[in-house]
Amino acid sequence: MTVFRAVIADDEPPGRRKLRRLLSFHPDISIEGEAATGTEAVEVMRRCRPHVLFLDVQMPGLDGFQVLEALGDLADTAVIFVTAYQEYAVKAFEVQALDYLLKPVTDERLAAVLDRLRKTLGATSSPPESLQPYLKRILVRGTRVARFVTPGEIDWIEADRNYLVLHCGTQEHLVRATLEAFAARLDPAEFARVNRSTIVNLDRVRELQMASHGEYRLVLANGHELLWSRRYVSPGLEKFLP
C-alpha cells in the first residue's frame, strides 16, 4: 500500500482535530505535520515535504494563497483547500488546487477527494523535492549599481510600508516585499520574527532583557535594541527565555 504524507494547515484547533479524525479512517494517509498560521505552514511544508497539503484560506500571518506563493513551485504536492468560504473556489483552482472542501467536512466528500488524490498522485508517487529553497543571495539595488547580499550579512529587517529595510552593519538596503513572504524564504533556524514589523538574525542577539507586560528586549551585538513581543515567540528564540 502506498502511503501519502499529509500536512494540515488550519488556524482553528477544532478544524484540525476533525480533519485529523476523518483522515484516521484512511490508512494510506499519514499526517506528518500541522500548522496554525501561514508562516508555520511554510516551515512545516519545508520540513515534511508531503504529498498533500490540506490548506485553510484565512490564517494569521500568511493566508492560504500567500503560503503557496511563498513556497514557490509545489511540483507533485497536491493542494486541497479546506475552508468555510465558498467565494475562494475560483481562485483556488486558478492556483491549480486539486480540490476544494467546504466546512463542515463530511466523510463522503472527503472520501471522494481522497479517491481523486490517489488517482492523481498514483501508486508510485514519491515526496516532492522542488519546494522553493531558502534565500542564499538577495539582490539589492542602489542609485547606480545593484549587488547581492547574503542572509548572513543581515542584522535585522524592518517593514516600511510596501518595502523592507535590510540592516547590514552600517549599511541599509531597501527591497520591495512583504515581511510575511520574505520571512518564509529565510531559514527559521537563523531568523525569527520578533514583532509585527521586525525580523532578527538570531546570531546577532547578544542578550535578552525583561521588559514590561511580558515582553522582552533583544540587544544585538552592535548594541541596537529590538522589542520581542510574546505573540511572536518561536522555537528559535525560546532558548533565550530566562
Walk me through what this model shows.
The protein has helices spanning 13-23, 38-48, 64-71, 89-94, 107-121, 179-184; strands at residues 4-9, 29-35, 52-55, 78-83, 99-102, 138-141, 146-149, 156-160, 163-168, 171-176, 191-195, 198-201, 205-210, 216-220, 225-228. It folds into 2 domains: 4-121, Rossmann fold; 138-240, Beta Barrel (OB fold (Dihydrolipoamide Acetyltransferase, E2P)). With 242 residues, it is α/β, with parallel strands linked by helices. Strand 11 (191-195) and strand 12 form a beta hairpin. The chain has a 5-stranded parallel β-sheet. It is 24% helix and 31% strand.
Could you give a quick summary of the protein structure above?
The radius of gyration is 20 Å and the shape is elongated. The N and C termini lie far apart (48 Å). It has a 5-stranded parallel beta sheet. The chain has a 5-stranded antiparallel beta sheet with strand order 10-9-8-12-11, with no helix packed on it.
Count of distinct structural domains: 2
Average the pLDDT over all residues and give the rounded result: 86
Strand content: 25-35%
* Structural category: alpha/beta
Give the biggest sheet: 5 strands, parallel
Stretches where pLDDT is under 50 for at least 5 consecutive residues are none
The shape is elongated
CATH T-level fold name of the largest domain: Rossmann fold
> What is the H/E string?
EHEHEHEHEHEEEEEHEEEEE
CATH class of the largest domain: Alpha Beta
Q: How many distinct beta strands? A: 15
Q: What is the strand arrangement across the widest sheet?
A: 2-1-3-4-5
Count of DSSP helices? 6
What is the CA-based Rg, rounded? Answer: 20 Å
CATH architectural category of the largest domain = 3-Layer(aba) Sandwich
